[in-house]
Amino acid sequence: MVLDVLRKPNANGRLLDIGANLGWFSLAAASCGFDVVAIEPFAMNQALVEASTCANGFHNEIKLIKSGLDTVARTCSLYQIPHVNIGDTHSVCSTSVDGEEMKRNFESKGYKKGHLEPLAAS
User: Fold this and answer.
1) Is the dihedral of CA 71, 75, 80, 85 positive or negative?
2) Of 55, 73, 109, 111, whose CB is crowded by the most CB atoms within 10 A?
3) Torsion angle, CA of 101/121/30/32, rounded to 10 degrees?
4) Helix, strand, or coil here: 92?
């Protein structure tokens, strides 16, 4: 369905890909002539988006913003299960006791903490 919209004649424009993950939608849109702003906070995913952008020659079409989005600046942790749906993460941003409990819960289920820069205030 998304590709159908992107492929419409004269459908070129701009795509904002929030939580770009591995960049699938960004790459698809760029290949259909769209200018893309991809926002991705996870370092491993950023590297994959950059590699795919380079490999496909979309240097001018895709702008990657290496950050997360929030209404306040704060530091969060990303968790993922290694080797399972690589690039998919869950964020934990609370500094309360409940937040610490959520972190322990993720870790007890096999999730590993990833690296995330502080989120940018919008």
Assistant:
1) positive
2) 111
3) 90
4) strand
The reported pLDDT for the residue numbered 119 is 37
**Distance separating alpha carbons of residues 38 and 26, to the nearest angstrom:** 7
How far is CA 110 from each of CA 31, 77, 86, rounded to the nearest angstrom? Answer: 37, 15, 14
- At 81, the amino acid letter reads I
pLDDT by residue (tens digit) across 7-61? 776 666 888 998 898 899 999 999 888 999 999 888 888 999 999 999 999 999 9
Helix (H) or strand (E) holding 113: strand 112-113
Residue 41's nearest CA partner among 16, 19, 59 is 19
